[in-house]
Amino acid sequence: MSRKRNTTLKELSKELGLSISTVSRALNDHPDISLETKKKVKKLAKQMNYVPNLFARGFRSRETHILGVIVPNISHLFTSTILKGILDEAELRGYRVIISESNNEETKQVEMLNTMTQFGVDGVLMSLARKTKDVEEVLKILNRIPIVLFDKVSSKIPCTQVVINEEEAAFNAVEHLIELGKKRIAIIKETENSYNSEKRFAGYLRALNQYNIPVRDKLILSTEDISLGNGRRLANILISMKKRPDAIFAITDNAAIGAIKALHKFNIKIPEEIAVVGFSNSINSTIVSPALTTVDQPGAKIGRTAVRFLIQELENPTSDVMTKTVEIKTSLIVRDSSLNA
Amino acid sequence: MSRKRNTTLKELSKELGLSISTVSRALNDHPDISLETKKKVKKLAKQMNYVPNLFARGFRSRETHILGVIVPNISHLFTSTILKGILDEAELRGYRVIISESNNEETKQVEMLNTMTQFGVDGVLMSLARKTKDVEEVLKILNRIPIVLFDKVSSKIPCTQVVINEEEAAFNAVEHLIELGKKRIAIIKETENSYNSEKRFAGYLRALNQYNIPVRDKLILSTEDISLGNGRRLANILISMKKRPDAIFAITDNAAIGAIKALHKFNIKIPEEIAVVGFSNSINSTIVSPALTTVDQPGAKIGRTAVRFLIQELENPTSDVMTKTVEIKTSLIVRDSSLNA
DNA sequence: CTGAAAGCGCTTACAG
DNA sequence: CTGAAAGCGCTTACAG
Questions:
Q1: Which pLDDT tens digit goes with each residue over A201-260?
Q2: What is the crossing angle of helices B299-315 and B77-92, to 10°?
Q3: Distance CA A288, CA A305 (A)
Q4: Radius of gyration for chain A, computed over Cα atoms and rounded to the nearest angstrom
Q5: How far apart, in whole angstroms, are the C-alpha atoms of residue A74 and residue A88?
Q6: Residue A40, pLDDT above cutoff 70
Q7: Which residues face A280 on adjacent strands?
Q8: Which end of chain B is less congested by CB atoms within 10 angstroms, N or C?
């Protein structure tokens, strides 16, 4: 099938007997051009199905109006919700979005960052790969184009960072358990000191301290990979204790759901004997029974906010280095796993 | 923060005292250039952190190596799994991917298609918006660049289509229920004749016919929006029948899960009294209890296949119009909702 | 083996 | 009000 080539300004100008410049100006509603000419030009343009080659335009102005997005894993519900927000907001503002995955590999992340700049993206939105240690390469790119980090961020990279109020969210979750009368509140967190895990743990500690509840090391469990399986495994450890906890705060929904499954096996009543709270408000949290109390993270809002800050930076290049951290508010969704305790 | 501009060939050539052409050729390993020159050039290029401007390159060759992707909704797990496959395969073959959403609106779909061509994407991968009726505009675009459809497709668009074996998958699911000894098998499907719903319904009918089981209109329920809530609602109708069905085949997991929740409320034993089978193998299907028997759709494979066909078409533009339909095999995952019945 | 020049499609300062 | 020309960064046929 032979493809039609796109109509160009040249073709239009030849057809009209006008210069390319005039045609270009007419289409862009330049004030110099007479109304009559504009009409004529626009009419033919429509007829010949003219679409401007944005590539050529961007090439000249050194602006592509393309934003790069790098995330660890696109098929994570929370991530794709953020992406939705990014797409919406970008489109609204006339930007296109190129998305790629780092698969949580630091080398891949740097590689993607490099090809993105090669492609001439105007800026990059990025959620860091797990265990990103060496930020040298990222800083190099940051010298060339603006970057805005979201969700998985790092204080080692001086740029705008959009996150949820992790610490406060965790505090609220644990406070909720305390208000329920729970005293022995276990936490399931990550071994590695990821930004998110650390903050949520800090919130947990602050809540206990504020309510004068002793922090018990035995009730603080960690796992490398905070999955459903590991949630189940760690919950089993908690269940086997002589003095069981009366609540479990897992820093992800999946781990919380694993815990629920484990409690179920042992016929432990949720929330009467042990209440469970998760983090994310994933779809699963409504499917599991009892439905899971969890922290709702407004993904789309995070995405939209990140785009807004990036574009602001792009369109005001004179402003100072942006290094602010923007916190998006979360809310606790109380469901059966911690109700009527 | 003042941004460093990217190094250009011009800068390199000035520094080296060579012409731009020579530098370009050296970097591209043109056989004409002496090894010595190549070494010198490459060394400086690395030193000065030179990255070719792919934009300029693509602009000249009229190939951007960017693929456009349009999906109804990115934050659908199945969709994002397909996207994962698309990203992987595209990257492997040196293509970038621009993603956008149609939000299931036909006008938005056309709009996205237009801006994508404006952007100069080499080709488009698309899953159609629900109820896409007017394919005129799509055909117009198809005259300019190749399109490959996946998942939500339409026979009205003459191009390569990548789908799962919907009909056979549904057949297998229903056959499985029949082999369990079920005789009154209800189906929950979509009102509207979407490609997927129609095919799955056809598979259902074929299975019943093949096993000489009468098709009962009362057991065929439809809903506009095949959601969890509607699954629950329709299941309630089935439950209230004098002669209840002994199995429910819902054409989506969500609807199946809704059905399970409804059965649960009425203390109906699953699968002994009523078995349930879904379609998608979403994460939820393992979270719900009993775990749901469902059809696994290899999303990543669909994505990868679609990319492969598109690129093949791009790189062999001489070949005839491509209109083949590629079917990706699914498999039935049997879980507790239909086990030991 | 290397260079000067044209051209991809567009915009825009400069002339008229 | 309109046009000729330069230029964005690159590749490549044409000369030498």
A1: 999 999 999 999 999 999 999 999 999 999 999 999 999 999 999 999 999 999 999 999
A2: 40
A3: 31
A4: 26
A5: 16
A6: yes
A7: A296
A8: N
pLDDT at B315: 83
Taking the alpha carbons of B76, B79, B85, B87 in that order, is the dihedral positive or negative? negative
Cβ contacts of A146 on chain B, cutoff 8 Å: 3
Question: Cβ contacts (< 8 Å) between B118 and chain A: which residues?
Answer: 51-54
Per-residue pLDDT at A255 = 97
Measuring CA to CA, which residue among A71, A227, A164, A196 is closest to residue B74? A71
What is the structure's pLDDT at A125? 97
CA distance A185 to A78: 26
Q: Which two tokens stand for residue B184?
A: 């009154």
The length of chain B, given as a count of residues: 341
**Which residues in chain B come in under a pLDDT of 50?**
1, 341
Fold of B9-52: 434 Repressor (Amino-terminal Domain) (1.10.260)
Nearest to B59 among A55, A88, A287 (CB): A55
The whole-angstrom distance between residue B222's C-alpha and the CA centroid of its chain comes to 24
Which are the contacts of B324, defined by CB distance < 8 A and separation ≥ 6?
A: B160, B161
Q: Å from B213 to nearest chain A CA?
A: 33
Does B331 contact chain A (CB < 8 Å)? no
Task: Evaluate whether B9-52 and B166-297+332-338 have a shared fold.
Answer: no
The domain B61-164+299-328 is placed in CATH, from the list 3.40.50.2300, 3.90.550.10, 2.40.30.10, 3.90.1150.10, at 3.40.50.2300
